[in-house]
């Protein structure tokens, strides 16, 4: 928990500081009243004593000792996590100036009439011996018992009659404190009994039968027992009907002496559980039991100590929230304060609209003692004096009660959240609103915290700030999710399941811990922690160090012989960029886009997406690709010339890309980025630290060079495809092979020719036998021994591969290992794509994740097919079948087996192509795409019944937007299929259908969001028509094949 909030807040602080914003991140801790007192009390118990035995003064001394010993652990963790807060301002809620602010706040609120003392229902913790907040009570489901019994109607003489009212309860022990039996005023079963008396079991006293609309006639027996001192709802009913309040369960959770006065002394002193058992047995003997049945019930438990909470009538201090809560609602509704994610606005409104009094007193010793004094030598006098000091209290008391009055301060302390609610303004000088810090830093900009304390703390701060300063304490509320343990439970000190961040830091490093948490941190969603995540993050931190070391070392080799080309903060002019080779232009363009994207994300408080984008850029684009290209510029063994202008440009670009990456990664991973940056050739008068350097901006005036970026992407895809083909053919890594590129685009052809050395190095080609040719020059037949790699419609690569004997078993093992990995990644990805993810994730993230899912599925299918093919039990693919058809029809009916060297590789997976004849001339390309397309057509047809069924509708609507986005992606499959259409008019018609389909899917998003079924069904019908129209075009394209009588005979021969 400390690690996630510290990491998120540090990202914000470092980012805004580097952007030049005046940034104060003020650190501090609260005194954690209940949790701290409970831990120290446990210590005392282990020593054979208790707080009451040692006394208040000695107990507080022990707590301060514990705080001195243990309290620094949190601060140490925060420092080790890299928190760049202003540690000179560190504060503690029990510091003198903050304690004075608490007293001032209490007195002002009392003077306003907001704070008062009274008897109300509270959640009582028998173990902690204090009232606890509603928010510190957790409800859990348990298998319990529902006890049905008779409330016998009393006659006019008070004696039992034959008539009774059946009543059910889950807590028979509270019968001892009943004040009435309540029925609905219009319930014909009991209407005649309203106003009569009934007899309390085992006590014999009479209580009235009353009528109230609160009762649900259809639930249970339709009659409720009313125990006003031990049930919140019963308390409200009792107030309306002026009923008596009997507290029969004491502060220790045992039956109180009150039960004796009410006529049942035999139960006094028994625990709640023992009383329940004994009372029920006694009632059974008296013939008052109807039945006991199993019942699933929600039981309130203390979040701190775990025992069953006892609702209890108690004399406490309360803060009225009627006006405060309304103001807090208004500032969010008006937009003065924003909540992210915005779904928590409803939660905010739901809680604050209840406007329940806030019990602010706690029966503890550790905390801010309530500034109220009572006369101790005036028996029966109920006066009290609220004062800012004991002297002021005596002054008030003597003026009213005489000079000899003696005062005793209230033993209770204030709820920890009362003092924490003052934090935004008390820490910067309040109540002195003229102080420099108050004027400069209040109100604050951002409140970042976990969603679990939205009401514990955030709502209290907003209410207190508006009431005491007339200003909202901050403009933005960002709520992170909880870090969960392996069982999915919230980490908590009292549960003992906290993972110490320092242990993770020792094993993986601070940067890895921060990155692992941040890369999965989405507003309002819980963050899981796993060993795999930490290991991946550690590997990335190592990658940053290694790529930095390489770039800096290479620069140092030529630094003396080459004039200074770079210093920290340097950028490029538009003219300089135009003169660069296209690879450098593409990297600078991608870097510019990343600058804009990461900056926009952080300004919008989005943290996960930038971490992934930065990692992909530095680890993939720079380290895996551009560094390798750059070697061919300045390393002689790769044909480079270290003294050339190209080498100087490349060095400068590498240093620039590295520094920009380090700066943008710095808020997320401060230590490794600072360490690498300090080793850069920083030039004259650089900033003393990376964290106070300037945030990067795009280089040059042009925002992008999309053409160069496209070439770079195609270049990388081509090299990857070549490497895969080499691996699949069993070519040794060091073996250099002849390579021929066939390019449809003349400009791309020129770009590849310019990067011949880089292409040869990266694809392990023989540079002397590397050719880049126009596709129009491609011969009709492939040379023998050639493997053709289909990179795209406009790019193919021929590799001349020497014949090799393939070890089938070894190849099967390799493919199975790959399949296992891909299957694991696919399962992880599919688990991630939940309805919540589809609803909350950024569109770009969703699109990328869904695309990744499709890609992994294709990889799995391809690997499965390859394994089956090697085992000899593969089914012929449609593409292979089409090729065989071509061979059969053109070769006089004899199917010729394809040679191993004639296998054609494509990015969609391997298939067989007859040299000189394209299977696409007979059948549209993409059997897999057609299968997926038909699957989605069926899914779309099946959607309406799910929306119309009440039991399915809600879930279907919730998933509908994600479904729309996925079916929108079908246009890619449709485009692929359409490329294979031979008839030009059908191809044009298909393209028009696809464009209309995309527009209609986008338009359907609005009624899907609104869950407007009639409007959505109009779009559904239109989209279904377009899908069927495209399907018919697909069927037309293969009609001549499917109607050919020769197909059946061919299929038998081919099989």
Task: Please explain how this structure is put together.
By secondary structure, the protein is an alpha/beta fold. A 6-stranded mixed beta sheet has the order 25-24-27-26-28-29. It has a 4-stranded antiparallel beta sheet with strand order 4-3-12-14. The chain has a 4-stranded mixed beta sheet with strand order 8-9-7-10, with helices on one face. Helix 10 (322-333) crosses helix 16 (454-469), helix 21 packs parallel to helix 23 and helix 22 (608-634) packs across helix 27 (756-763). It is globular and about 115 Å long.
Quick recap of the structure?
The protein is of the alpha/beta class.
What level of helicity do the residues show? 40-55%
Please list the strands of the largest sheet in the order they lie side by side.
25-24-27-26-28-29
Strand content bin: 5-15%
Question: For the terminal residues, how far apart are their CA atoms?
Answer: 61 Å
Instruction: Report the major sheet.
Output: 6 strands, mixed
The counted number of beta strands is 29
3D shape: globular
Radius of gyration: 38 Å
Overall mean confidence score, pLDDT: 86
Q: Work out the helix count.
A: 39
Oligomer: single chain
Instruction: Find the structural class using helix and strand composition.
Output: alpha/beta
Low-confidence stretches: 877-925, 1037-1055
């Amino acid at each position: 928990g400390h690690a996630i909030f510290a990491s998120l807040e540090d990202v914000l602080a470092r980012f805004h500081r580097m952007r030049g914003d005046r940034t104060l991140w003020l650190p501090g801790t609260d005194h954690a009243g209940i949790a701290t007192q409970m831990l120290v009390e446990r210590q005392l118990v282990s020593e054979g004593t208790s707080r009451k035995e040692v006394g208040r003064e000695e107990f507080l001394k022990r707590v301060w000792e514990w705080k001195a010993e243990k309290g620094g652990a949190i601060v140490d963790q925060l420092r080790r996590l890299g928190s760049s807060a202003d540690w000179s301002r560190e504060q503690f809620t029990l510091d003198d100036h903050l304690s004075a602010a608490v007293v001032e706040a209490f007195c002002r609120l009392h003077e306003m009439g907001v704070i008062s003392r009274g008897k109300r229902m509270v959640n009582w913790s028998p173990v902690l011996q204090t009232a606890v907040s509603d928010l510190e009570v957790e409800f859990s489901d348990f298998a319990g018992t529902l006890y049905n019994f008779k409330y016998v109607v009393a006659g006019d003489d008070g004696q039992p009659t034959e008539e009774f009212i059946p009543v059910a309860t889950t807590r028979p022990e509270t019968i001892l404190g009943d004040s009435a039996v309540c029925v609905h005023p219009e319930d014909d079963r009991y209407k005649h009994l309203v106003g009569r008396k009934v007899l309390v079991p085992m006590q014999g006293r009479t209580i009235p039968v009353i009528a109230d609309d609160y009762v649900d006639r259809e639930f249970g027996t339709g009659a409720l027992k009313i125990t006003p001192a031990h049930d919140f709802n019963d308390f409200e009913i009792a107030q309306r009907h002026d009923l008596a309040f009997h507290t029969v369960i004491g502060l220790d959770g045992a039956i109180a002496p009150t039960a004796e006065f009410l006529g049942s002394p035999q139960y006094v002193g028994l625990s709640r559980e023992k009383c329940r058992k004994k009372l029920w047995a006694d009632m059974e003997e008296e013939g008052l039991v109807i039945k006991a049945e199993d019942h699933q019930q929600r039981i309130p438990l203390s979040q701190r100590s775990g025992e069953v909470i006892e609702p209890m009538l108690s004399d406490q201090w309360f803060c009225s929230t009627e006006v405060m809560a309304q103001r807090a609602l208004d500032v969010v509704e008006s937009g003065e304060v924003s909540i992210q994610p915005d779904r928590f606005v409803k939660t905010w409104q739901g809680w604050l609209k209840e406007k329940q009094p806030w019990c602010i007193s706690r029966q503890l010793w550790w905390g801010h003692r309530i500034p109220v004094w009572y006369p101790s030598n005036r028996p029966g006098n109920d006066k009290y004096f609220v004062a800012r000091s004991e002297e002021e209290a005596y002054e008030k008391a003597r003026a009213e009660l005489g000079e000899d009055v003696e005062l005793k301060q209230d033993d209770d302390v204030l709820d920890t959240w009362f003092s924490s609610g003052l934090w935004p303004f008390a820490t910067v000088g309040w109540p002195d609103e003229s102080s420099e810090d108050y004027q400069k830093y209040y109100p604050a900009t951002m409140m970042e915290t976990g969603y679990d304390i939205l009401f514990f703390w955030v709502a209290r701060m907003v209410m207190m700030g508006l009431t005491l300063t007339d200003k909202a304490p901050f403009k933005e509320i960002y709520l992170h999710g909880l870090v969960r343990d392996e069982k999915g439970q919230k980490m908590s000190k009292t549960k003992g399941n906290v993972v110490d961040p320092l242990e993770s830091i020792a094993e993986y490093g601070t940067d890895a811990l921060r990155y692992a948490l941040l890369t999965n941190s989405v507003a309002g969603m819980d963050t899981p922690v796993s060993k795999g995540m930490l290991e991946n993050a550690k590997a990335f931190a190592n990658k940053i160090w290694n790529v930095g070391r390489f770039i800096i070392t290479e620069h140092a080799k030529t630094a003396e012989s080459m004039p200074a080309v770079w210093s920290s903060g340097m950028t490029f002019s538009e003219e300089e960029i135009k003169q660069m080779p296209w690879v450098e232009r593409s990297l600078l363009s991608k870097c510019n886009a990343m600058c804009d994207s990461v900056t926009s994300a952080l300004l919008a408080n989005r943290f996960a997406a930038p971490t992934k984008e930065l990692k992909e850029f530095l680890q993939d684009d720079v380290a895996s690709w551009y560094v390798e290209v750059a070697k061919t510029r300045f390393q002689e063994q790769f044909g480079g010339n270290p003294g050339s202008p190209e080498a100087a440009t490349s060095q400068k670009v590498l240093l620039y890309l590295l520094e920009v990456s380090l700066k943008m990664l710095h808020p997320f991973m401060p230590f490794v980025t600072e360490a690498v940056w300090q080793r850069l050739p920083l030039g004259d008068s650089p900033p003393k630290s990376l964290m106070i350097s300037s945030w990067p901006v795009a280089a040059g005036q042009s925002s992008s060079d999309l053409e160069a970026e496209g070439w770079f992407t195609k270049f990388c895809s081509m090299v990857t495809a070549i490497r895969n083909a080499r691996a699949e053919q069993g070519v040794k890594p060091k073996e250099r092979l002849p390579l021929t590129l066939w390019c449809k685009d003349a400009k791309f052809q020129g770009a590849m020719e310019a990067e011949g050395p880089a292409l040869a190095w990266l694809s392990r080609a023989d540079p002397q036998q590397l050719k880049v040719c126009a596709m129009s020059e491609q011969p009709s037949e492939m040379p023998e021994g050639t493997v053709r790699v289909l990179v795209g419609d406009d790019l193919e690569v021929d590799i001349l591969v020497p014949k090799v004997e393939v070890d089938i078993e070894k190849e099967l093992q390799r493919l199975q290992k790959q399949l296992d990995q891909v299957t694991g990644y696919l399962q992880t990805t599919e688990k991630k794509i939940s309805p919540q993810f589809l609803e909350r994730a950024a569109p770009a993230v969703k699109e990328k994740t869904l695309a990744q899912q499709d890609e992994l599925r294709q990889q799995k299918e391809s690997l499965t097919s390859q394994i089956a093919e090697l085992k000899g039990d593969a089914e012929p693919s449609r593409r292979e079948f089409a090729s065989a058809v071509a061979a059969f029809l053109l070769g006089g009916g004899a199917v010729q087996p394809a040679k191993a060297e004639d296998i054609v590789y494509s990015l969609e997976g391997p298939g067989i192509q007859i040299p000189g004849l394209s299977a696409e001339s007979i059948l549209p390309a993409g059997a897999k795409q057609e299968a997926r397309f038909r699957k989605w057509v069926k899914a779309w047809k099946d959607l309406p019944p799910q929306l119309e069924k009440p039991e399915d509708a809600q879930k279907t609507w919730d998933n509908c937007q994600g479904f729309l986005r996925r079916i929108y992606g079908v246009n890619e499959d449709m485009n692929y299929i359409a490329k294979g259409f031979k008839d030009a008019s059908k191809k044009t018609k298909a393209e028009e259908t696809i464009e209309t389909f995309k527009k209609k899917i986008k338009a359907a998003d609005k009624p899907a969001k609104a869950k407007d079924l009639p409007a959505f069904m109009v779009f559904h019908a239109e989209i279904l028509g377009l899908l069927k129209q495209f399907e018919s075009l697909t069927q037309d394209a293969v009609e001549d094949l499917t109607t050919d009588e020769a197909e059946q005979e061919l299929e038998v021969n081919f099989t």
